[in-house]
Design brief:
about 500 residues; alpha/beta
Length: about 500
């Protein structure tokens, strides 16, 4: 939302599934910032390109949070991070609360996917707190990406531009299986979030015998074509927000013409604006474009509690006051949010999604137009990419239980994607739709308990019969109405 770095909402070659671990360093006791107790840190050496075992090598790092019980269960839980471009290890302190009950008798494993964190990172070294004005120029973003690409070519494990193509989901899942072998686990449980669901689907395709249970939270399937679907899914979430305002008494009373105010705001662009940076307080002046405004609105749609403040922010912006909208837009993508390794992000999207843009049938939406498609098309035109065979995009029947979670208000991975995947996975799949949830359910309400009961269930039938009433009935957050000024009371 702030730049190409923050756009995420998201190579099955002939040797897929047969690459072996060249070397596994024994896991050693270590400390990870944010985790209270000692954990185990290890790594496996992998060929950057499995077809060139004597070529560049990378180290894929992992962290194991050991089970608390002495008599632990043999099947650990692996977290698959989102993005693409997030480091799983960096997310460990944030998600261990979700896995606390599972961790009583199971190890929890975090693997930094190749290109992220400690595993041969493709880091564009962008500032974590980009100025508001720096986000307003898409061409400037593309120039920064081009400069990043040139810097990445100087990394010791990148000998040519072609090497930047070897950071795809398939290769990463082969790395993951090498970690499974290194820790001696015969079968594992997968928990994937957002892009991590694509990774989980691919791991299951490559290594079906190694999977015991899978949880896919906010499903982003391999055939999603992220840049093409972004506009459609964001438009649906925004339309739902306007519809909800129309039937909620407080919102309808306060802003009866919210949609008209929004249309007028869009029609007024581009325009010069001055907005205090929500973090620094410095007033910044720049041109508010349609694309920048849409990005600012799309970001809070991910979280219903933030989206509840959008009607007030849109109304204020229509009157020339953009402070609230700027604050909401930055709530997820600035200080404190998960870091995105931009080089890895584009290695995945440019290889797996961008080549299918031409045939994806991008339909222009009412407000979001073509969305991210034109920007990604330009960015990927110059990014080295690996070939992805058709088999990568096919989702076959699951041999073991899969729990799919969808938020009905999700602007990035709405239920339509999970429904399609659940049908392809067949009888072993259970799709749970939470109508009033946004993007990512893992930490919501009773979901940690549901994850525990699904993974801990003694047999497949018990796992698939999970009672999910505790989460499906959560209400939509009420709209935020700012208090009236003192003079109006």
């Amino acid at each position: 939302m702030r730049s190409l770095r923050a756009i995420a909402a998201v190579v099955a070659l002939a040797w897929a599934g047969v690459a072996t671990t060249a070397h596994a360093a024994p896991a050693q006791p270590c400390r990870v910032d944010g985790l209270a107790h000692e954990v185990l840190c290890g790594s496996v050496a992998r060929a950057l390109d499995p077809a060139r075992p004597d070529g560049p090598q990378i180290e894929v790092h992992y962290v194991v949070v050991p089970a608390l019980a002495r008599r632990k269960l043999p099947d650990p839980v692996f977290l698959l991070a989102g993005g693409p471009g997030q480091s799983a290890i960096s997310l460990a302190p944030q998600v261990m609360g979700v896995f606390a009950r599972l961790n009583n008798r199971r190890d929890i494993v975090f693997v930094d996917q190749r290109g992220t964190g400690r595993s041969a990172p493709l880091d564009c070294d962008e500032p974590r707190e980009a100025a508001l004005a720096e986000s307003a120029d898409p061409q400037a973003q593309l120039r920064r990406l081009a400069a990043c690409r040139e810097r990445l070519l100087k990394l010791p494990y990148v000998r040519s531009a072609t090497d930047l193509g070897f950071f795809t989901t398939t290769l990463a899942m082969q790395d993951l299986d090498a970690v499974r072998q290194a820790i001696g686990a015969e079968r594992i449980n997968l928990v994937g979030a957002s892009y991590g669901t694509r990774a989980g689907i691919e791991y299951q395709r490559l290594f079906p015998g190694a999977v015991r249970r899978s949880v896919l939270d906010g499903v982003a399937p391999p055939d999603m074509v992220l840049p093409a679907s972004a506009a459609t899914d964001a438009q649906a979430a925004l339309d739902a927000l306007f519809a909800a305002c129309g039937v909620e008494a407080a919102c309808a009373r306060e802003w009866p013409l919210l949609r008209q105010a929004w249309d007028g705001l869009l029609a007024s662009l581009p325009r010069a604006v001055s907005v205090p940076d929500p973090l620094t307080g410095r007033v910044e002046s720049f041109t508010m474009t349609r694309e920048l405004l849409l990005g600012a609105v799309r970001a809070p749609l991910y979280v219903p509690t933030l989206a509840a403040a959008l009607p007030a922010a849109i109304h204020a912006a229509s009157q020339g006051r953009f402070e609230a909208l700027a604050a909401l837009a930055g709530a997820l993508s600035r200080r404190g949010g998960p870091r995105l390794y931009t080089g890895m992000h584009f290695a995945v999207i440019c290889a797996e999604d961008a080549p299918r843009l031409a045939t994806a049938g991008v339909a222009a939406t009412r407000d979001f137009g073509d969305g991210l498609a034109p920007l990604y098309a330009q960015a990927c035109a110059a990014w080295p990419r690996a070939a992805v065979p058709e088999a990568f995009y096919q989702v076959g029947p699951a041999a073991t239980p899969v729990l799919l979670l969808s938020g009905g208000l999700d602007p990035a991975t709405p239920p339509r994607h999970a429904a399609r995947v659940a049908q392809a996975l067949g009888a072993k799949a259970r799709h749970v739709l939470v109508p009033n949830a946004g993007h990512g359910l893992m930490g919501s309400g009773c979901v940690p308990d549901l994850l525990y009961r699904f993974i801990d269930a003694a047999d497949d039938a018990q796992a698939l019969a999970l009672d999910t009433a505790c989460i499906t009935s959560i209400p939509r957050p009420g709209v935020f109405v700012p208090p009236a000024p003192e003079a109006a009371r």
